[in-house]
Write a structure and sequence with these properties.
The protein is an alpha+beta fold. It contains three helices and six strands; from the N terminus they run ααββββββα. Helix content is 64%, strand content 16%. The strands form two sheets. It has a three-stranded antiparallel sheet with strand order 1-4-5. The protein has a three-stranded mixed sheet with strand order 2-6-3, with no helix packed on it. A hairpin with a 2-residue loop joins β4 and β5. α1 packs antiparallel against α2. The longest helix is centred in the first third of the chain and has 108 residues.
Length: 208
């Protein structure tokens, strides 16, 4: 074999070897890509599985919220109904206690034309006392502050009266009693306060 043929043969062999190496390299790259694809696919499957779990948990929480909301609404309605019933029962108990007073008033009206003024006044006074007793047992307290230091939290001043014998802002006249119940003022006393007298001591003001 001459030298040219040998060279051609060697060159062909080299090209074949290079082609084989290229094919092997491509095959290795394909295998790497396949492994990467499998890894990505596994991650996607895991994320989808996690997403399904999150969706299921969200649905469970949504259902729980709906049930709790329904229970809360039912609770509020039940409490409102119970409070209304309790108010109704409290009113019924008070009216029941006032029925004897109502009977006495009715009798006083029926006999008002047949009794003298003194007897009528005595009867009305007795009814008034019984009425006050019933309300006092329910916790009602009259606010009758004549001669006391004026207290804007329980008194309502509607005028002043000149009086130099008592300290300023003394209740000089009570036009209408006030009432409180369980430490809550239902109606302040309507009063007139004094003016022109000595200034009230700070200790008196702090006691109000």
């Amino acid at each position: 074999m001459d030298e040219a043929a040998a060279a051609d043969k060697a060159a062909a062999a080299g090209e074949a070897a290079a082609a084989d190496d290229s094919i092997l390299a491509d095959a290795a790259a394909i295998e790497d890509l396949a492994r990467d694809f499998e890894a990505v696919e596994s991650e996607i499957v895991a994320e989808l599985t996690e997403l399904d779990a999150v969706k299921a948990e969200a649905e469970r929480l949504r259902d729980r919220y709906a049930r709790l909301q329904a229970e809360w609404d039912n609770f509020r309605r039940r409490i409102a109904t119970e409070r209304e019933q309790e108010r109704s029962r409290a009113a019924e108990r008070l009216v029941e206690k006032l029925l004897p007073v109502l009977d006495d008033l009715e009798r006083a009206v029926d006999h008002s034309d047949t009794v003298n003024g003194a007897s009528l006044k005595e009867g009305i006074t007795a009814v008034f006392s019984k009425f006050n007793e019933v309300l006092a047992k329910e916790g009602l307290e009259a606010i009758d502050p004549l001669g006391e230091a004026f207290d804007a939290t329980v008194h309502q001043a509607v005028g002043t009266l000149e009086d130099t014998t008592v300290p300023d802002e003394t209740v000089a006249q009570v036009y209408q009693k006030g009432y409180r119940m369980a430490n809550r003022v239902l109606r302040p006393a309507t009063v007139a306060v004094s003016s022109g007298g000595p200034k009230r001591e700070a200790s008196d003001r702090s006691d109000r």
